[in-house]
Amino acid sequence: MVDLALARIADLNPKLNAFCAVDEEAARAAAVRADERLAKGEARPLEGLPIGIKDAFDTVGFTASAGAPAFKDRRPETDAPTVARLRKAGAIILGKTNTPVLASDFQTFNPLYGATNHPMNPDFSPGGSSGGSAAALASGMSALELASDLGGSIRWPAHCCGLYGLKTSWGLATTYGTMPPPPNKRTERDVDCMVAGPMARAAGDLKLMLEIIAGARHAERPVRLQPARFTNAKGLRVALWATDPFAPADKSVRDKVEEAARRLETMGAIIDDRARPGFAFSEVFEVFALYNHAAIGWGLPGPVRDKIAATAPRYKRGDLSHQALQARGVRITPGQYRELEMRRRKLQAHWARFFERYDVVLCPPAPVGPIRHDHAPDIHKRKLIVDCAERPYLDFLVWSSLASGPGLPAAAAPVGLGPDGLPRGVQIIAPMGEDLAAITVAAMIGEACA
Asked: 377-408 as b/e, with b when 16 or more CB fall inside 10 Å?
């Protein structure tokens, strides 16, 4: 398996640039040891499985730069806890997959390793920030990928590349040893809203990795995952949220979300396209956006943070433009952060009441399908095209905020191809802690769409 993966990397990686570092010698040595264990009947859960690790995670034997020139020579002496758990379970680490600078963009390019291309069309990006992971999986270079998600960094690339991905419940799998923030600004507490999670070519493989990586930083034994509250689609209560005035999504995306719902309905699910939680979309987006910009801002150099924060007086109270939210979030005060936490808890309570009546929500993973490379330095000048109309580039954050802000699990599952011949998917949001429910529905959609 390792030889096949390395051959695939040698053949395709020069064109795709999915892996930014590979250690063939170490991978083959690990494969020999895995064969010995298999021969002795001592195989561990992931024995011999060749995987990639997003370059945001500390991994012994490799640099961990997250695409940032300041960390190009940084070689961690210990693995991030999630990486250590995968090694202990027998997985063989092929190398590191490419990511934007500090994992902070929706396309994958950086000044150290360049841009990663979409496996189906090199003119397009595979998404970000886990774009290298997505391109590696979709092209068959690896069997599984360890990635991270703050504002859709697993779900968006999975949607782009026809893959399965899981944004885990916040706190289920520690993000310690991951960027952002930079290594010198790490705290014991996981970054609010940011998670570690698996990406795979099959829904069942998400569970395979999740069972290994789940746990707090110092957890010594696997965490018992909460079983899905259902085993088949018959009677499954599905809330369909394919459209919203606050969050325009392209017809090519909406169509696939609705198709996923129809497929579940043919399997016996009950679909309700009017069901909504008891909060305004704008509220959950604002709460998440402030968390997001606070997390990213914490890692910025002081002068850069000050420059962005200084623009805050330009914006009126209640302004939800991305520039206004960024200016408010990068220099958030302790009191404001406490208020944000209280708002987050109210959102969680709304979701908990909603999930007493429904099992999952189906909605877009992002407002658009795969986009062409656009590396304009001012992120606010980039645009998305939604039904022939321009939208702000950072609208990528809007649909992902429904799960990211409250910390809910959300899976991305492929549904089919759009009019451009590139993949489209669906986002499946489940109750807090019910990650296996999201995976189970992703598997149902995959079975129905096969």
From this structure: eebeebebebeeeebbbbbbbbbbbbbbbbbb
